[in-house]
Amino acid sequence: MAISTDAPAATPVSDGQLVNRVQQLRLNGAGSGASSGSRRGAWLPWVLCGVMALAWVGIGIRDYQTPKASEGDSTAKAPAKNSPSSESAAPAAPGELLLQIKGTLTPALQINLSPDDVSGVVTDIFFKEGDRVEKGTVLAKIRNDRYLNDYHAAKAAKEAAEYRLAELRPESVRTIEKEQAQAELDEAKAAWGRADLEIKRLAPQRDSGVIPSEVWEKAEADLKSAAARVIRLEKAYALLVEGPRKERLNAAQAELASATARFQEAERLLKNCEVRAPISGTILTKVADQGVLVSPMSFNVAAGICSMADLSDMEAEIDVREDQITLIRSGLECQVSAIANPNRIYRGRVDRIMPIADDTKNTVKVRVKVQLPPGETPGEFLKPKMSVVVRVYNTEIPPFTTH
C-alpha cells in the first residue's frame, strides 16, 4: 500500500508511542482508494484513545484510594484498650474519658399500682398523669358493698367470742350470784341441822319400840339427804368463785383468736377498697378510670389503676460491650446529658454493673445514678425513657443522695 507523499510526517512527542501508532493507522487509512473505508477508519483511532484513557484513569483512582483506605483503617485495626492484644498498654490516666455511650433514663423505683386482693368497679379517681403525690394519698376507690358486709359480720362474730370468753372468767361472777349460792348453802345447812335434831329426838323412842321402824328410817334418810345437799352446794359455791375448767377457757380463747383473724382480714380488705400511694412519687400513666371493673386476680379483667415512680431517683441504663466492661467499675464519675438538650449536663456515678450479660448483643447493662441539681423539681426535665449520652471518666467519687 502506497503512502501519500503530501501527508505530514508523524512527529514523536512525550509519551508519543501511542500517538505515533495512531497517526500511522490514520496515514494507512488515508491512502486507501475507497472513500467509504476512509470514513469508517477515521473514528477508530479516537475510540482506542478513549478506551486507553479510561483504563489509565481507573488505574490512577485505584492507586490513589488504596493508601487512603489503609490510613483510615489504622484506627479500626488498632487494638482496643481492653483487648487481649493491649494488655501491656498504659492504664487510663486519672480523669480521662473512658467511654461515651448512649443510654436510656429509667426510675430506680417504679410501681404498677393495683388494688390489693380486692376487685370491683372503680367509683372514684383522684389523680391525673403528672401529679406528684405523697405516700398514703388516696388515689382511687373501689365499690365496697360486699367487703363492708363481710366486715360487719366478722366484727359481730368477734364480739360474740369475746363475750363468751368473758363469761367464763371468775371475775365475771356477779355479787348477787354469789349471795344466792351462799343463801342456798345456808338453807341446806339449816335443813341438815333439823334432820339431825329429828334423829336425836327419835332415838330414845326407837330404843323403847314406841315408833315404827319406817319412821326411823325416814328420819335417817332425811339426815343423809340434808348432809349431801350441803356438800353439793359448798362445791357449787367454790366452782362459782373459782371459775370453769382451764380447758374451757382455752377453747374460748381459741374461738376468739379465730374470730379476730377473720375480722382483721375483713377489715384489711375493706381498707384496700381505697387504693393509696405506696410511695411518694409522680403518676406516670393512668390505666383505669371511673366505672371500670378491676380485678388483680383475673387474667381477663383489667388489674391496674396506674403506674408511678420516684423521679427524684433516676438512673441511666447503658449497654457496655463485653470487650469494654473491664473499663467500668462502681463509683466512677459520669456526665449525663439528654439528647433533648445536650447543653444541660447532670452529674452521675456508676452505681452497679448487672451480674448477667446480654448474649444477643454481647453487652452488659450498667446503671448510672443521676443527681438532680438543687432546686430542680423531679420530672421537670428528665423523664423516664428519655435518650441520654453518658460519659464515664476515670475518677472515683463518693455516693450521693437524691432529693
Largest sheet: 6 strands, antiparallel, barrel
Low-confidence stretches are 1-16, 29-38, 66-88
Described by the principal axes of the CA atoms, the overall outline is: rod-shaped
Radius of gyration: 54 Å
The residue-averaged pLDDT reads: 83
Q: In what order do the strands lie side by side in the largest sheet?
A: 1-10-13-12-11-14
Question: What fraction, in percent, of the residue positions are helical?
Answer: 40-55%
Total domain modules: 4
How many angstroms separate the termini?
104 Å
Structural class by secondary-structure content: alpha+beta
| Percentage beta strand | 15-25%
Query: How many helices does DSSP assign?
Result: 7
Order of helices and strands: HHHEEEEEHHHHEEEEEEEEE
Number of strands: 14
Summarize this entry quickly.
The chain has 403 residues and is an alpha+beta fold. It has seven helices and 14 strands. The chain folds into four domains: 17-74; 86-109 and 310-396, Efflux pump adaptor protein, beta barrel domain (Elongation Factor Tu (Ef-tu), domain 3, Beta Barrel), CATH 2.40.30; 110-143 and 273-308, OB fold (Dihydrolipoamide Acetyltransferase, E2P) (Beta Barrel), CATH 2.40.50; 153-267, no CATH class.
What does this structure look like?
- The protein is of the alpha+beta class and 403 residues long.
- The protein has four domains: 17-74; 86-109 and 310-396, Elongation Factor Tu (Ef-tu), domain 3; 110-143 and 273-308, Beta Barrel (OB fold (Dihydrolipoamide Acetyltransferase, E2P)), CATH 2.40.50.100; 153-267, no CATH class.
- Helices cover 42% and strands 23% of the residues.
- It has helices spanning 17-30, 35-42, 44-77, 145-168, 175-208, 213-242, 246-271, and strands at 97-107, 110-113, 120-125, 132-133, 138-142, 274-276, 281-286, 293-294, 306-309, 314-321, 332-338, 345-358, 363-371, 387-396.
- The strands form three sheets. It has a six-stranded antiparallel β-barrel. Strands 2-9-7-4 form a four-stranded antiparallel β-sheet, with no helix packed on it. A four-stranded antiparallel β-sheet has the order 6-5-3-8, with no helix packed on it.
- Strand 11 (332-338) and strand 12 form a beta hairpin.
- The longest helix is centred in the N-terminal third of the chain and has 34 residues, at 44-77.
- The radius of gyration is 54 Å and the shape is rod-shaped.
- Mean pLDDT is 83; it is low at 1-16, 29-38 and 66-88.
